[in-house]
Write a structure and sequence with these properties.
mainly alpha, 2 strands, Arc Repressor Mutant, subunit A, 12 helices, 3% strand
Length: 293
């Protein structure tokens, strides 16, 4: 991604001392011109460095290089900085791009410095996930019936998956993560589902069903990011290229062919937010019908 490459170049210039602490970094306009990108792309590169604590905005001075103590130097590195930087990498580049060495490089510290806080990448990812799931919580006093509360739980999880697409990629459903903050979301959903007056096994099944629905839709958030990055094609451009193959598929399949014709006339956008809401309503309608609630 272009903005990541711009950020990496600026980070290298800072590491070499070409841009010392307190020096102004190139403006968004200058970066856009130098790299031949849109202003928004250049701004995203600076935002990434700001999120990592490498640069900061100073009144009347613009964006400047942060001092080493602000950038997580060997003496200033904290566990919170480590997690925030690792999360920023996973958010922008995907979990596959995350490495202990890469996190250390982003922080401008020795390759072994992060190991003072975690034993390795696996532990780091679990801490990242726990921190991410803890970014949103629930009212101290629940309001509404079971359906309203379960809807809130689903939307809360969905918002976290959208903010951190890599979260949905962690572990199979059969091996749930024992994370304190994920347990908070689980308790909220279980409390709502318990109003259906079911036994413990059924309650567990319903909670797994609910969670797997949200996670199952969210899995496609990072997959779409990867598809866009690897192909360079938007969803619309990709669909346009598939038109001949889709038309060939419709031969001998009258329902599929009719659907394609109608969608060709009315237009259709596959919006994951809308799909999530549609599926959530269908799931809750089914539970209400099944358990008479």
């Amino acid at each position: 991604m272009k903005y990541v490459a711009i950020a990496d170049e600026l980070r290298d210039r800072i590491a070499r001392g070409e841009l010392p602490p307190g020096a102004r970094v190139p403006s968004t306009r200058r970066l856009a011109a130098d790299h031949g990108v849109a202003m928004a792309t250049a701004a995203k590169a600076l935002a990434l460095l700001s999120q990592e604590g490498v640069v900061l905005a100073e009144p009347r001075s613009g964006t400047v290089v942060a001092g080493r103590e602000r950038r997580g130097g060997p003496r200033g590195l904290t566990r919170d900085q480590l997690l925030r930087t690792a999360i920023a990498i996973a958010d922008t580049e995907g979990l596959g791009a995350l490495s202990m060495r890469g996190v250390a490089a982003r922080l401008g510290v020795a390759a072994m410095a992060p190991y003072r806080y975690v034993r390795g990448k696996d532990e780091l990812v679990l801490l990242m996930a726990d921190a991410a799931f803890g970014e949103r919580g629930y009212p101290a006093t629940p309001r509404g019936d079971w359906r309203e509360r379960l809807t809130l739980g689903g939307r809360t999880l969905w918002s976290l998956y959208k903010r951190h697409p890599w979260l949905a990629q962690l572990g199979p459903l059969t091996r749930p993560l024992a994370l304190r903050n994920l347990g908070m979301h689980g308790e909220w959903a279980l409390a709502a589902l318990s109003e259906l007056d079911v036994d413990a096994a059924t309650l567990c099944d319903l909670h797994v069903l609910f969670f797997s629905y949200v996670q199952g839709i969210a899995i496609h958030l990072e997959r779409e990011q990867h598809a866009l990055a690897s192909s360079g094609l938007s969803e619309e451009q990709w669909i346009d290229l598939q038109t001949p193959a889709l038309e060939a598929m419709s031969a001998g399949r009258p329902v599929f062919a009719r659907m394609l014709r109608e969608l060709g006339g009315t237009g259709y956008d596959l919006v994951l937010d809308d799909l999530f809401e549609l599926g959530m309503r269908a799931l809750l309608d089914g539970l209400a019908l099944r358990f008479g609630r």
